[in-house]
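Much of what follows relies on a compact textual record of a protein's fold. An example makes this concrete, so a full record is given next.
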Amino acid sequence: MEKDVGAIIETFRVGPVNAVARPTTSEVLVNGKAVSFEAYGISGNNYFKLRDLASVLSGTSKQFEVVWDSANNAISLTSGKPYTPVGGEMERKSFGSKTARPTTSRVLIDGKETFFTAYNIEGNNYFKLRDIGLAFNFSVEWRENTDTVVIDTGNKYSPESGQ
């Protein structure tokens, strides 16, 4: 029986089949200002909705647009472009642990396909904050002593900025 190479690649691309997502309880600072996100911790990493991040970063040097292409099951991100709200950004729906299922959508940044570990939680796609920081070159720092996640668009991404 011949293996479906596309299915193998898709499985590799999206990571584990399902995961437990627990609400992030850490304070989140964006350019020094406290911002309340609906974010989740999955396997030791923080996951945020792309549209929430794009909304909060709009107007900064690291802004990006998010466009959903349902015909191609693709999320298109355009760097440097202001975010266009679609409604529901920064809403906090519910609390408690959730089941996170791998996102099967393609992701394109400035037209180039990019692979992220991402999960769908209750109909929204959540992406690892550090992956988005790396992709758009903004600083993501973990301050364990204050239980704070720091996003700084004035600094470049560094994998050395805490965990």
